[in-house]
Amino acid sequence: ITMLSNSNTVSKLYMSVIDDVIESVRELFQDEGIEDRVLEDLRQINSYFCQKVVLTWIVTSPSVSLERSF
């Protein structure tokens, strides 16, 4: 459970950094005539990527037990 919590914290931190970068370049993109939709697409791609990385890390981590009790 601790590893899941840690991965969630890392994921949130990573998303926060990406969101900050996207917001800091928004005006530059607008000045160049690039639509806001491009930045929102980047945000969605990042979210998808981050979820996949966390899931891969959880599944491949040897210290996470995924056993079920019957």
Automatic annotation (TrEMBL):
Output one GO BP term.
transcription initiation at RNA polymerase II promoter
Specify the domain of life of the species encoding this protein.
Eukaryota
What the entry lists under InterPro entries is as follows: TFIIA_asu/bsu
Q: Which Pfam families match?
A: TFIIA
GO CC, one annotated term = transcription factor TFIIA complex
The protein's name: Uncharacterized protein
